[in-house]
Design a protein that fits this description.
The chain is α/β, with parallel strands linked by helices. The protein contains 3 helices and 5 strands; from the N terminus they run αβαβαβββ. One of its GO terms (molecular function) is cysteine-type endopeptidase activity.
């Protein structure tokens, strides 16, 4: 689908809010490469093609100089703030680049792949399902 068609589906005058999270887990045995690049590229795309405004995009990365680290509590807080600011019809986007994992689902006696919950892994390893 072309960008123009996507923009046409987003109502004019409505806010476009985004929370972008990139975790490279630098200097750990779980280190990744490119997750911060992913969210920076997504931020550029949202600004240049999809009409998001810079002040409506929250960027959390685990770079040493990042003002807000993507800990479990900071990610939750950022998502709550995005929802609090939203009005009916607004566009909300959450983009995550980092490790994920599977956890046993609550109340399941026999565990299968289908009965597990997915979780994202913030930089402090405080999982979010």
């Amino acid at each position: 689908m072309s960008d123009t068609k996507w923009e046409g589906r987003m109502e004019a005058g409505k806010k476009r809010l985004a929370t972008l999270v990139g975790c490279n887990y630098r200097n750990t045995s779980n280190e990744l490469h490119g997750c911060i690049n992913d969210v920076v590229a997504m931020q550029r795309l949202l600004l240049s093609r999809f009409g998001f405004e810079a002040h409506n995009i929250t960027l959390l990365t685990d770079e040493p100089d990042s003002p807000v680290q993507p800990t479990g509590s900071n990610i939750r807080r950022s998502l709550q703030e995005m929802i609090r600011r939203a009005d009916p019809g607004d566009v909300l986007l959450f983009h995550y680049s980092g490790h994920g994992t599977l956890l046993p689902a609550h109340g399941q006696s026999h565990q299968t792949f289908r009965s597990r919950e997915e979780a994202i892994v913030p930089c402090d390893f405080n999982l979010i399902t």
